[in-house]
Amino acid sequence: MTYHALWESSGLFVRQAGLATDTDLVELTQLAYGDSRFCDLRYVLLDLLGCTGTRYDVEIVTRVAATNWAASLTNPRIRLAVVATQPQALAMTQVYVDAGFSPFPLRVFSSIEAARQWVGLPWHETERPAAPPLLPPTHGR
Question: What is the DSSP letter of 39?
Answer without folding.
Answer: G
